[in-house]
Amino acid sequence: MLVLGIDTSLRSTGLGLVESRDGRIYGVGFDTIKNPPKLPLSQCLLNIRQTLLNVVGEFKPDVVAVEGVFYSKFVNTTLILGEARGVAIAACAESGLQVFEHEPRRVKQAVAGWGNATKEQMQKMVVSLLGLQTTPPEDAADALAIAICHIQSVIRLQLAGVKAL
User: Fold this and answer.
1) Is CB count within 10 Å lower at the N or C end of the chain?
2) Which residue among the candidates 22, 58, 139, 142 is catalytic per the annotation?
């Protein structure tokens, strides 16, 4: 199973591909979708969509995992994040992929063993779990963590006798 993890943001959306094979997980690749600060919102959203369509077309993941909604005291930030998430989810759905959401706290528990893990702790655990040679940027590490969390969720369901993607 090849999972595309996405950590959505307007200016730096993290992407991470993780494969589950022979009972192990492997890091396939990671990147970020960068949007310059002066780029208008509509162009940022278009860039996220087009880049995701290209990544999905090239790597052909089996499923997509995104970070679930989180709450922020900054309403404008939350709205913009929602727009970026919507574009990412729609682009993946447009490609025929099933999209799963995982709560931020659950992702941290799955990867670092603690729901309040720091960004640095998450980066270190992602590197360790996937045997990466380089440390991914924060957004890409978060995307890899989301993909790892999804794979672990599927494995748990399979062990419980539930068929899942």
Assistant:
1) C
2) 139
Query: Does the annotation mark 7 as catalytic?
Result: yes
Pick from 2-6, 60-64, 69-73: least confident: 69-73
Query: Of 22, 67, 101, 138, which is the active-site residue?
Result: 67
**Would residue 31 show up in a list of annotated catalytic residues for this protein?**
no
Q: Which of 7, 83, 101, 103 is catalytic?
A: 7
The closest of 30, 22, 32 to 1, measured between CA atoms, is 22
pLDDT confidence tier of residue 69, bands split at 50, 70 and 90: confident
Query: What is the SS3 string spanning the chain?
Result: CEEEEEECCCCEEEEEEEEEECCEEEEEEEEEEECCCCCCHHHHHHHHHHHHHHHHHHHCCCEEEEECCCCCCCHHHHHHHHHHHHHHHHHHHHCCCEEEEECHHHHHHHHHCCCCCCHHHHHHHHHHHHCCCCCCCHHHHHHHHHHHHHHHHHHHHHHCCCCCC
Q: Who has greater pLDDT, 72 or 148?
A: 148
Q: Closest Cα to residue 10, out of 56, 49, 45? A: 45
This prediction has a pTM of 0.92
